[in-house]
């Protein structure tokens, strides 16, 4: 029995020359830039051209490109090991806005000739801007490539036990350091979304809350111990809040030590290694924070990989179908 698992993530530029094309792809997605198609291409090129210098400066701090692909490939290899009892299992990585694109990955899956396919987003919380967009792009590419194997879809897993256990352990390991510096505020930070997208019914913010509550319960935190906040906002639209940078300022001015926990990112990349580790650290220090600590992403943590394996096994249980979704909701 051959099983193909397709892992989805956002993607990132692999060098300075790919920064502007990556941004152009991002803003060309109708799930991201929700304007009529006639104008989207022109606007995407304009935004990409204007933002490229700033983005290049960010990736320069990472050696010129994003580490997201090799980090995701490491997760793929770990998951293959976790599932080796299922027969011949191969994980394929596909990225939404940079290589490997779905149009590259789908033919590889076709050549593997699997008996069954699992679509597994590396987004624990569902959003129309991430998971739904990635699935739509995959379905298009798979159809073009002639991929016909029965396909099972894992839609979301905001409170999946392994994910929650990994975040909780990593947080617990750093909590003593933060508390040693002073009274501690834990900031669970997720990538933000424009408020109008959430108001249109996107469940992402609610699912981020589910993830945080599950971790807080496991760690025995009270509501006063932590705050849910959102980072990476850009453009003139109002985004969901509270904003991570403003919560950092508030905690610093209150004389608190800050423990930053990425709750929606499962791999290290620019939003963690630059925005959280460099930019927000400088902000905290400038505002006089008594301490600033950042919890690592779950990466290949054994609990997380075992949790992903459990989701795959659940999706393959009798009753699964190519049109149903495997959901884990709190």
TrEMBL record:
Pfam families xrefs: Ferrochelatase
Domain of life: Bacteria
Subcellular location: Cytoplasm
Gene Ontology BP annotations: heme biosynthetic process
Stored PROSITE patterns: FERROCHELATASE
GO cellular component: cytoplasm
GO molecular function: ferrochelatase activity; metal ion binding
Pathway the protein acts in: Porphyrin-containing compound metabolism; protoheme biosynthesis; protoheme from protoporphyrin-IX: step 1/1
Chief site of localization: cytoplasm
Keywords linked to the UniProt accession: Cytoplasm, Heme biosynthesis, Iron, Lyase, Metal-binding, Porphyrin biosynthesis
EC number from the UniProt entry: 4.98.1.1
Catalytic activity, as annotated: Fe-coproporphyrin III + 2 H(+) = coproporphyrin III + Fe(2+); heme b + 2 H(+) = protoporphyrin IX + Fe(2+)
Residues annotated for Fe(2+) binding in this entry: 191, 271
Family: Belongs to the ferrochelatase family.
Protein's job: Catalyzes the ferrous insertion into protoporphyrin IX.
Protein's UniProt name: Ferrochelatase
Source species of the chain: Hypericibacter terrae
